Amino acid sequence: MEKINMIKRINQYAMLTVFSLLISTSNYAATSHKNMDEQWGQLVQDTNIKDPRLQWMIEDKYSMFIHWGLYSQMAGKWQNKTYYGIGEWLMHMANIPTNDYKAYAKNFNPEKFNADTFAKLAKDSGISLIVITAKHHEGFAMFDSAASDFTITKATPFKRDPLKELAEACKKYGIRLGFYYSQNFDWTEPDAAMYKGPKIKGHKKDFQRYFDNKVIPQVTELLTNYGDISQFWFDTPGNMPKKHSQDLVDLVKKHQPNCLLNSRIGNGLGDFSTMGDMHIPLKGHDGVWESIDTTNDSWSYAWYDEHWKSPKQLMENLVRVIARGGLFKLNIGPKGDGSIPAQAIENMTTAGQWLANNKQAVYGTTASPYYGFSWGDITVNNNKLYLHVFDLPKQRKLQLPHLENTVLKARMLSDGQPVAFTKNKQTLALTLPEQLDNDLIHVIEITLDGTPKVSSKALAIDGIFPTSLPADFATVSKAKVEEVRWMEKFGEHKHSQNISQWQDKNAHAQWQVNVLEPGKYTLKIEYASDLAGDGAQWQVHTANDSLSFVTMDTGYRRNLLGTRDDRGRKIKPRMRYETVELGLINLTKLGAQNITLTPRVTENKQAVWVRRLIIEPYE
């Protein structure tokens, strides 16, 4: 009985309770049947990476997102109750009636708003572009619009147009400007997707009417009243027909031919792709793409969210994205009074100082010829490799395998100190200086005899750092590598590739590794399991050893997906991983070899999701 009660408690509390993304609507798009990742639409189907209009964005790498609206004044709270989740979705989470939400606009008076503060923060942070929310899903326009009365200039005591002021400030500081616009969702418009208001007697929903009477006029206003617009960032197209997406493309190109469009305009259109929210991928993607992330957890300001990413973490995320060939957009959420949280300013400007000192290792660089390393990552500029060392090795030694080039020079980028190196066949061994600057991230500049040439991307086991073997890089048979997405307490999106759907005991996942330092290593596994996977039996095989183990229930409840909890809310389970030490392995062979994971028996294997293996030096 106690075990049954425990399971019930897990079912109740180990689930996503932030909000349901699957609301029932009657609009043509059947939007309610899509999860949020599906609402974001397809990635761009045909990106011309050589398009001259894209070159500034590819060169600059780094931009600022601003989520600011009526929801910022509420700050995650409605009628003295806090709703933990995505702050800008508060109207949806709290089921706020449309009329009440609109009436709340009388409380929004951001008197501390100073456009120069935003533009200067971008400048000081090493950022060249600001994209700000002009209209989010709530339907509230943060600009003066003739197409609606639900605007900051008409419905609030503020009366001013902050986007007009921001456009002027961006011009003053040499910052490009872009606008976010929710084209499909509008919770206050009866004809839009996911309308949240009361049913109107005799009203027949007509999305085309909303599109013609609000979307087209407002997008036109944004394109024609604010000077040069470098980027128009649409969101959540859902099942919006391609005709509407194409109409928006044509409208933008008509008024701002050089303005770039993201993939969330829908239907595979756009100039560049936007990954899922807060996704820092381990693998790159085709064409021009961006990752979007936040300075803390919530996109808009929420009174409770003090989970700030450090300046070092911000720059690590920037480097990881650039090293995979992507661009990075970092969000801030101003308060309802128009001010920027002090911690966001401090962290971004500190990171900006690091960028100013290491700019040649970031701006204008290209993707790494390797996958990432445990110690950091690499960017490339012509014949130079930039090694971004996130974690200094104990003995200040690093190894770079499979490098075919001759190394001409190695130095610390910040102060020019030489870095000692030797090259044995294709392995470059580096020894960092004893005295280093107090940098957020230490950068080593390596000059080669030509464009970097790497013979293999196999993950290196160097005897110094732990080596992660993620599901992303596994070759599988009779199993699948699938991405799982979920949302945590403050609405932060999580993404992870997992090996799952193991068919039988002949299924396997295999990783190719390159052992640079033979010896003894500790093997660990990170996995999730639901109750059915408790006690499943597994084996890991190396060239010399095999280890057997069983998986245990970690609290993940995939079987409850789509059901409702005791308060009637739809459940979307959060992935729950555990990392378990499996034992000691001997990697006595130098060079390339395989590590293989297999089920030992047929039972229970489908209820286990393997995120990665971890190989650590045995100490």
**Beta-strand share of residues:** 25-35%
- Specify the biggest β-sheet: 8 strands, parallel
Structure classification: alpha/beta
The total beta strand count reads: 31
Question: What overall geometry do the principal axes of the alpha carbons give?
Answer: globular
Tally of contiguous helical segments: 12
Stretches with pLDDT under 50, minimum 5 residues: 1-33
What is the typical, i.e. mean, pLDDT? 91
Helix fraction? 10-25%
Sheet with most strands: strand arrangement: 8-7-6-5-2-11-10-9
Rg, rounded, reads 26 Å
Compute the separation of the termini in Å: 43 Å
Question: How would you concisely characterize the structure shown here?
Answer:
This protein is α/β, with parallel strands linked by helices.
Walk me through the structure.
- There is one protein chain.
- It contains 12 helices and 31 strands.
- It has 619 residues and is α/β, with parallel strands linked by helices.
- The longest helix is centred in the middle third of the chain and has 18 residues.
- Helix 7 runs parallel beside helix 8, helix 9 packs parallel to helix 10 and helix 11 packs across helix 12.
SSE order and pairing:
Blueprint: H1 2-13, E1 15-16, H2 36-39, H3 55-60, E2 62-66, H4 70-74, E3 77-78, E4 81-82, H5 90-93, H6 98-103, H7 115-124, E5 129-135, H8 162-173, E6 176-182, H9 207-224, E7 231-235, H10 242-255, E8 260-261, E9 273-274, E10 289-294, H11 311-323, E11 327-332, H12 342-357, E12 376-381, E13 384-389, E14 397-400, E15 407-412, E16 420-424, E17 427-431, E18 442-448, E19 459-461, E20 467-470, E21 475-477, E22 480-487, E23 493-500, E24 508-515, E25 519-529, E26 537-541, E27 546-550, E28 572-573, E29 578-587, E30 591-599, E31 608-617
Parallel strand pairs: 2-5, 2-11, 5-6, 6-7, 7-8, 9-10, 10-11, 19-24
Antiparallel strand pairs: 1-28, 3-4, 12-13, 13-18, 14-17, 15-18, 16-17, 20-31, 21-24, 22-23, 24-30, 25-29, 25-31, 26-27, 26-30
Helix pairs in contact: 7-8, 9-10, 11-12
